[in-house]
Amino acid sequence: MQELQIEMKLKITLLFLFIALYTNAQSKDLKFGKISEQEINLTQVPFEKNADAVILSEEGKMDLTSSNYYLTVKRRIKILTDKGLDEANIQLNYYSKNRNESISGIKGSTINIVNGVEQITPIDEKEIFDVSLNELYAAKRFTFPNVKVGSIIEYTYIKSSEYNFSIDAWNFQHDIPTLSSKFRLNNQAYGTYSIITIGDGLNTKYKGKSSSTEWLLHNIQSYNQLKYVYNPEDQSERIKIQAATYHTDGAKKTTMSAWRDLIQDINAQYDLYRNPSAIRDLAQNIPNGKDEVETLKNVIEYIDSNVKWNRFYGIIPTRSNKTLLKEKSGSTADMNLLLNEILTAKGFETSMVMFSSRHHGQILFSYPIVNQFNSVLTVVKINNGASNIILDASKLNKEQIEFGPLDVFNYHGIVIKKGDASFVKLNQKLSYYESSLKYDFMSNGNLVLYRKDKFNGYFYDDDVEEKNVLNRYLTESLDVRLDEEINDKTIFDTDSYVKNYKAKTVIPNAPFYTFINPLREFLKQYTFEDTNRQRKIEFNYPYLFNIQVKSKIPEGYEVIIDEKYKAHHKTELGLEYYQEVKVKDGQLTLAIQFLLPEGVYEADKYNELKQFFEKIKTESLKEVLMKKK
Questions:
Q1: Percentage of residues in the chain having pLDDT higher than 90
Q2: Torsions phi, psi of 311, nearest 5?
Q3: Distance (Å, rounded) from C-alpha 37 to C-alpha 134?
Q4: How far apart are the first and last CA of the chain?
Q5: DSSP state, residue 618
């Protein structure tokens, strides 16, 4: 034991020594071609040991003027595994339309150590390619030569842009870990710019330092390690630069007046494509149902059968309704305009809402700029306005119309309409999962499991193979190998998906049987390791589990119940967990319920959530023993 303690202390000491030496070494400016002994000897990242590559050092310097900006980037990467070889393929994207952005000055080389001597292989300029990505964007692509595990690659380039109103200035955090990242700003622009720092590390280190012009972070894990965030890259350590005033026709605008002007401009674009009279005739051919929900489903069926998404997101239509129906394909804006117009003609109260999807990132209310958004959706009021249904015409759910695509639920959107700007909160409906597991010790010597799972909302996934439907969230309770006998196809019944399953085996005649909590493995995923959480805690969706396990107690057996098995935990945040075991009329019953009522919680609730999940994970480890008398 003493040797183990000494070894652990030595490892910890060496880890901190490595970090201290490397931090000191990388605080100086990055000079190409001069690599250190620490960089040569590094084979594993201490704070992310499974990393395939690591950014050893990177620097960015931005010169900002009143008309454009120039960003000079230097970056050095080390390849640690075979998978990390992909980092040698570089793609630098830029906005190519109207030639308002460009990338130039690309230089780089591969450094290998052979018999203690540096071998430097530069990039061939002829192998740097300019490729078109789409009508808006292009990219510079190149691949480093002579790269293998242990190679160090380094490159530099200059990005120039005339888009200096809202700038994604610098990312300190990437899809691989970073040992040192530095950014400097030389602001020579007229007018006021706001520096927006995103990420726990930046906001902790530079809190109250609004006049900073240089930022430096060390030992940054890859953003893939971030937990409880909708979009890890969007929530990574980074800096945005935003013009603090807004100009329309030469006049300065307040934030809200700028939002109003922006949405008025968007609405005017929609007016060019609306055709209410033509849509009224089309809507009359779509049958009304016995109630408004059935009529809504008929409209959804019509859209789904007649037009398809062309995989383009958009906030402004590019096709009229007539053109869309003729071409049978359109963007999210095209399709939602058609859906909205038909629903309005059918007498529904609707709104079109511009939003930013989870994969696109969160909007910042303080900065009314259109590129914060990437799509639109349709909100329909039913039950005399008491309920809202959120629809995206490009991804319609014909069975569960009240559950819109998960990607659209990203806090707020803004209504496309005349008048003042109106923001709406995009609320998710609770998903429900009910499971009944019944074990029967038969007189013929067989042990049979009858299982029925009923679920809705985001517990359903059309991409999951039928054989894997039941093992996504819950495990079986009795730790006995059973042979599948019946595995019915998942069906939709009224308002939920239902799956029946039956399995059996010869009764093992064991001295005891252990019943475990079917939710135990699911709860293990909830770990809370942040020490200074400043981001909101984002769960995919709110949900409720209701699980019941029943078993006939075979003759000659008895159930041993721990008096501490029963548990009920509830927080002021609304989370609730309950478990109980009962024996009655020769039958054992386990009941488990778990409620996560909201999808998002404020950062200051992190420790409360952590304590709650630690408690219920401990409760889920408790077992029920059925043993021979």
A1: 78
A2: 75, 10
A3: 43
A4: 42
A5: H
292-316: pLDDT as tens digits: 999 999 999 999 999 999 999 999 9
Distance CA 467, CA 239 (A): 45
Pairing of strands 375-382, 387-391: antiparallel
Handedness of CA 251, 253, 257, 262 (dihedral sign): positive
Helix extents (H) in 486-539: 520-523
In this predicted model, what pLDDT tens digit does every residue of 18-69 receive, in sequence order?
Answer: 444 444 444 456 777 789 999 999 999 999 999 999 999 999 999 999 889 9
Chain-centre distance of CA 68, in angstroms?
32
How far apart (Å, rounded) are the C-alpha atoms in residues 280 and 340? 12
Q: Is the pTM of this model over 0.90?
A: no
pLDDT score of 252 = 52
Strand ranges for 29-145 from DSSP E: 53-64, 69-79, 89-95, 101-114, 117-122, 129-132, 137-143
Q: Which two tokens stand for residue 441?
A: 């010790």
What count of other Cβ atoms lies within 10 Å of the Cβ of residue 503? 18
Half-sphere exposure of 416 (CA within 13 A, CB side): 27
Burial of residue 209 (CB within 10 Å: 0-12, 13-18, 19+) is exposed
Beta strands across the sheet bearing 624-628: 512-515, 624-628, 557-560
> What residues contact 584, with CB distance under 8 A and at least 6 apart?
none
